[in-house]
Give the backbone structure.
Amino acid sequence: MTGKKLQIGIIGAGRIGKVHAETLAFRLPEAEPVAIADVNRDAAKEVAKRNGIARVAADSADICSDASIDAVLICSPTDTHAELVMQAARAGKHIFCEKPIDHSLGKIDRALQEVKKAGVKFQVGFNRRFDVNFARVRAAVIQGEIGIPQLMHIVSRDPAPPPISYIKISGGIFLDMTIHDFDMARFLIGDEVESIYAAGGVRVDPEIGKAGDLDTALVVLQFKNGVIATIDNSRKAVYGYDQRVEILGSKGAIATENCYPNQAIVSTATNIQRDLPLNFFVDRYTNSFISELRAFVDAVTHDRPVAVGGIDGRIAVVMGLAARKSFEERRPVLLQEVAQSAPQLA
């Protein structure tokens, strides 16, 4: 497929759809967004106009039936992902799908089987793997700079909770928020998690509890290789978007700090201060969004393996389901208790 721009159709013109449309339009010359569809046609028109996308498609079927389109980006609500993956796969389109693929392992497995049958590329949108800070942590583990990893701590706190309307359909904190951290944990350590213990509560907004969710959680992961990890989540950190990692190894440690709008530090006779961290995921992870789409385009164009595949997407959901089960039953849960039978995806 080398020699021409990858022609991409976008399904979903919401928050993440806007991010990806802008990336394709202005930051990836090797690809071109040529069509966009959304149930809210006005939203699709607005995104198309802002990013020079030639066509607002009638719906996802319109995009998938367009022979000129090589690949699709699925940026719609989670409950539509699995069906759209199957629709795109059957149409022979390469697929980039935002996380999670679905909340149901059965639906995920059916979608992945269709992907396998079609022989198309399929990448899941775990963009944090492409952040240069976290990539450096992974490199330190791979290269043995800190020796054998022993402990890991992931801090992941949002600046403010999402709307209650979103929380009611999101699948809960472990599937809409911690799921990123579950993927990061596997990525950074390079091994599989054996068991999960989760504690949580409602410490931010009682309405979140009334909606059946948590807003504060601490998760302990036991890896098969013996590493112990913790994930610290909150839906509200008043000082900004808090994203940090530390790994302690037999020969040392490596840690990442938050990202700031500038590096200036003000020192006076009474205090030392700096500006607050970047306040939103779009600002914090701008470059990682670019890098993950570049990796997808490269995999399709040069027929290379995708960086984050369907099994990665499935395992993160298994971990989310195990965490919820652990919280509800107040005990550690082995992943194999909820994993069911994974599809054979050679």
